[in-house]
Each structure stands twice: as C-alpha cells, then as structure tokens.
Amino acid sequence: MNDTLRGLYDVVCDRKKNPSEGSYTCYLFEKGKDKILKKCGEECAETIIAAKNCDNDELKNEICDLLYHLLVLMAECDLPLSEVMDVLEERRKKISNLKVMKNVDRNT
Description:
Layout: H1 3-17, H2 24-31, H3 33-52, H4 56-76, H5 81-93
Helix pairs in contact: 1-4, 3-4
C-alpha cells in the first residue's frame, strides 16, 4: 500500500479521534458528512475544470485536494483505506481482461 496515502489517512483518522484546535480536518469532522460531501463535490468539479483546461500543474493540485477530501470521507464513514486498496488491487488484476462489447441498436 502507498505509504503516503496510508500516512495521510492515519493523520486524518487521528484528527477524528483526537481533535486539534485550528485543524481544517477537525473542522470538517465537526461540520459533519454533508460538509465533507460538499467539499468532495467541489474538489471533483475543480479537478474536471483543471483537466479540461489542460493545466497539469493545477490538475495535480486539484487531484491531491480531491484525494484528501475522499480520505476524510472514508474516515467519517469508518471505511478503512485497506478495503479501498483491496478493491483497487482486484481491479488492477483484471486490467488485461478485455470485455467484448455488445452491438446495440440504439435506433430502436
């Protein structure tokens, strides 16, 4: 598992258990799931805009913001990072399994 993601997730989980005054992460937990979901949506939109603008400097920063807020959401929902990484690993194993696409008559 990626040490950077694991380390950041651990810090996020620690902030949830041990609130620290002035911490943005603690602020998000204090405001609750609706605020966390709103931030995830905002960061997702900003990621899309950066990609559409072909601005890789901005894109990498927006992706990091989105990943951070997703980690906060995972902690809020008590979803371990390891479970998400397990799903990603299973999907990685299937990458070479091409699926045959069905021909569908979209005119009917």
